[in-house]
Amino acid sequence: xxxxxxxxxxxxxxxxxxxxxxxxxxxxxxxxxxxxxxxxxxxxxxxxxxxxxxxxxxxxxxxxxxxxxxxxxxxxxxxxxxxxxxxxxxxxxxxxxxxxxxxxxxxxxxxxxxxxxxxxxxxxxxxxxxxxxxxxxxxxxxxxxxxxxxxxxxxxxxxxxxxxxxxxxxxxxxxxxxxxxxxxxxxxxxxxxxxxxxxxxxxxxxxxxxxxxxxxxxxxxxxxxxxxxxxxxxxxxxxxxxxxxxxxxxxxxxxxxxxxxxxxxxxxxxxxxxxxxxxxxxxxxxxxxxxxxxxxxxxxxxxxxxxxxxxxxxxxxxxxxxxxxxxxxxxxxxxxxxxxxxxxxxxxxxxxxxxx
Length: 356
Fold this sequence. Notes:
- The structure is a single chain.
- By secondary structure, the chain is of the alpha+beta class.
- The protein has ten helices and twelve strands.
- It has two domains: 2-123, no CATH class; 139-348, BirA Bifunctional Protein, domain 2.
- Strands 5, 6, 7, 8, 9, 10, 11 and 12 form an eight-stranded antiparallel beta sheet that branches. Strands 3-1-2-4 form a four-stranded antiparallel beta sheet, with helices on both faces.
- α6 (139-152) packs across α10 (326-348).
- It is elongated.
- The termini are far apart.
């Protein structure tokens, strides 16, 4: 009898998305340390998010408890997956309620539960503190974020917050990136190719700008694109300070973003020259330049204009339909932007070509 109980001993664990306040969690069971299981999931999964352990409950029949939990939360479950569209805290409270209203499964103590590694303890300290939000979470947000990581076969790197004006995920590449942005105020979804003005490996944005100035390929891209009117080019000017990039009046290089269909050679050259002027010519454009910028929101007890380091930031995006078959809509968006990703990558790394 004891041997049978030992075989059933284990944990029901709740994982939350690391580094982003998103009401999605993963609920599963394991007979091993949940932190080890979480590391295994992060290592072996080809897509989805990076997860961290939010809660773990040791019981004498982890399979049965997991089954009860999944059945109870079925309306919130994503199809054929262990993902649920609720916060980890809500899921934990639901499990506590299930345990309290039955008598067959009992909590127990498993010695390794208290023997976390230093890395695990560090992760525990970094758990997300969720802020209350009146914003309604649409389950399709989670679906499209996970479809994005799955279709590209990447580990999503989250940015922003659900409670803020935007949130999303990128492929985390240090250079040309794929990203997916959800604008929470308008519920608009944008799939994009992104290249920030950062050092990375020898300032790739400088390589792209110089390459396009020397031999522009934008007309070719426009000709080869099926729907150039659905692709938008946005070169931005980022102002840098220690804790954030403040919104500035001069933020739009060229004055605004443009549909690809409207960008001719003359306009493109003008945009590129303004973007290049955001980089330090004394360092062969491999560094930020200092410019006077105007804050959109005047700082408290401070001037509205200031000399700050700036750099250019390129994003090229298309809108994704939020209705119908989300995965199919996203797949079409990726196909539309693939030539854009190749174009930016080839301009950034002209010696090596496309990076897969």
